[in-house]
Amino acid sequence: MKLTKEEIRRYSRHLIMPEVGMKGQEKLKKGSVLIIGAGGLGSPLGLYLAAAGVGHIGLVDFDVIDYSNLQRQILYNTEDVGKSKVETAKERLLKINPHIKVTAFPVAFSSENAMEISEDFDIIIDGTDNFPTRYLANDLSILTGKKNVFGSVFRFDGQVTVFGDPEGPCYRCLYPDPPPNGMVPSCSEGGVLGILPGIIGIMQATEAIKLITGEGNPLVGRLLTFDALGMKFKELKIKKDPDCVICSSKRSIHKLIDYQHFCGVQPHSADDGAHPLEIAPNELNDLLKKGTRPFLLDVRTPEENEICAIDGSVLIPLAKMASHLSEIPLDRDIVVICKVGSRSMDAVRLLQGWGYKKVKSLKGGVDQWAEEIDPDMPRY
Known about the structure:
Blueprint: H1 5-10, H2 12-15, H3 21-30, E1 32-36, H4 42-52, E2 56-60, H5 85-96, E3 101-105, H6 114-118, E4 123-126, H7 131-144, E5 147-154, E6 157-163, H8 171-174, H9 187-190, H10 196-213, E7 222-227, E8 232-237, H11 259-262, E9 278-279, H12 281-290, E10 295-298, H13 302-307, E11 314-315, E12 334-337, H14 342-353, E13 359-362, H15 365-372
Parallel strand pairs: 1-2, 1-4, 2-3, 4-5, 9-13, 10-11, 10-12, 12-13
Antiparallel strand pairs: 5-6, 6-7, 7-8
Helix pairs in contact: 4-5, 4-10
């Protein structure tokens, strides 16, 4: 893995540092990382690892670029909307550094393909935003003996650490069990400061470079948290769980499992028909046109409601619903509305527990309503 004349010129600012030098840069050229998620965290990760000269970068993401991504996913621009994330990212990274190899995996990362996809990479970098894939990345790291550079962002807060070291903890040591589905909103529902993934992603890239070169003190057993509003960093010590189900001597997990089921996520496909607790946008629209008007309960936040709302809906955020039951009629049909149908389904189940019988969730939320019924409604 000797450096070419062109590479020596490109990486000269690394080469004159005693902590990197020729040997360190050659390690980077030989290094390989798999970035799971080509979004907010994956963008700065890809850009900086490519520029640094990491020899082989893998990108896994089945998604396409959306307008809502452009506020933070700096690998992409407006003309890219609708294109594959990983294919577009691959093109950009090779323009930044043609001396590296980039492999794109435009698929959903799953327990069926994770082993095969990760086979040619030394380090796993978790740039995901959902619990099933985080647990999958963690367990893949432990079962394959590969380090896992973890990062997460939400609103103004971020976290970075390194899992998978034999002497350190894994993700399950920190979070043995996932929260119930719907209890923790995703960035699409809770929001994220556009700059934050850049900060956290760059820290993840730094940890990956340290692991490849063998320099510095990686964040093993240390969780670094960042509060953007207060501009404060904190370091929390995290210990290896002696009873961990996957990284301890008492291991009970020996293979990758169905993580969607493990995390309580039961996604519905676009054509999965009528769920008994859901009403399709066209069905609701027909009812409204006929004058059969159910009580429309919007459980989003006031900030979301300000962006757009279905006419005649009543805003009662999910977190405040229990204290506003007097405003929700027991004797009427109720349709609960959120952004994409997840929180509204949680609200339906809560209302059923409180004695409400005639209650359904709007399938796909205001997002699907805007797509199918009201094209003038802003989407976010």
